[in-house]
Amino acid sequence: MNEVEFRSLVAEERVKYVNDYLMKNMKLKEVAINLGIAYSSMTSLLNKDGYRYSRQQKQYVPLEGNDNKGEHKEEDVLLYIKENEATLRRIIEFYNSASLIISPKVYDNGAKFVTKNFKINTAILNEFQTLMSEKYPQYRLQDAISQAILDFIGRYK
């Protein structure tokens, strides 16, 4: 195939042609030389067609958002879920455990600590203390309060 024939192909056929050669362990520059087209022209054409080169897959793949406008075939979704079942189960288990994550900043050995007195609603404090003693007895109250302040800063900064 020459450059004129390559340019006359529809996008999917161009990508299939290049990917077929890449699967045979050819490099992109070698494919361009075989076609008699400049390497930069070939890659630009494929990029304009809505594809990008994936170094991991060593193939041209559709650009994000270019694949049926975000729609996926049901069997593809099911296959993805099946392939990633263990990871998805761990994520769900972690979410359901509602684990308290304390930032390393709270435990920083170089940090200076200060004692502060402040007023707080008694009902809120009692509810907080109950929660900490029942669900998170391994944490000190001061660590949970420090984490709550960090979370507040991150959310409202």
Q: Overview of this structure, please?
A:
The chain is mainly alpha-helical and 157 residues long. It has eight helices and two strands. It has helices at 3-8, 11-23, 28-35, 39-48, 74-83, 85-97, 122-135, 141-156; strands at residues 51-54, 59-62. The chain has a two-stranded antiparallel sheet.
Task: Set down the secondary structure blueprint.
Elements: H1 3-8, H2 11-23, H3 28-35, H4 39-48, E1 51-54, E2 59-62, H5 74-83, H6 85-97, H7 122-135, H8 141-156
Antiparallel strand pairs: 1-2
What attributes characterize this protein structure?
single chain; 157 residues; mainly alpha; Arc Repressor Mutant, subunit A; 3 domains; two-stranded antiparallel ribbon; 8 helices
Oligomer: single chain
**How are the strands of the biggest sheet laid out side by side?**
1-2
When the domains are counted, the total is 3
Rounded to an integer in angstroms, the radius of gyration calculated over CA atoms is 28 Å
Share of helix, binned: 55-70%
A few lines on this structure:
This protein is mainly alpha-helical. The chain has helices at residues 3-8, 11-23, 28-35, 39-48, 74-83, 85-97, 122-135, 141-156; strands at residues 51-54, 59-62.
